Amino acid sequence: xxxxxxxxxxxxxxxxxxxxxxxxxxxxxxxxxxxxxxxxxxxxxxxxxxxxxxxxxxxxxxxxxxxxxxxxxxxxxxxxxxxxxxxxxxxxxxxxxxxxxxxxxxxxxxxxxxxxxxxxxxxxxxxxxxxxxxxxxxxxxxxxxxxxxxxxxxxxxxxxxxxxxxxxxxxxxxxxxxxxxxxxxxxx
Length: 188
Hints:
The chain is mostly helical.
């Protein structure tokens, strides 16, 4: 079984890969090792799980140097990755005649920052709507959960891409204060 760490190692070594390319690399690794290869759906599930944990991240072709318009999504090594490069990866790279792709991290950082800013604004709007009337304790729980997701993503990405996330800190602190004020108003 391909571990998430090995997946990160493969992606990190090659810069950016589509899910199909990851499948072909994994298939060759398994064949070299005399094992039964994973299926494409298994690789897709592994990638989705790793993405949820911020071990890998999805980027577009526009964020990779030298690619022309191709409409595909690529995986890159994410902020929580601890890559473990499979010992026989270099042989697979030679067999498949692959080259490392260079990722334009400034473009990636800009997109992640914009997306996180949108999430902050959406949560701020939701807090405004809750403030306008009575609300159920589950509403507050939902707000706290969404805030926690934003905060975790902020910390993950600010460590990974520090220069572009700094401007979001004030908005995140404001969300925290507003949620605490809602809790206090409810006697929580």
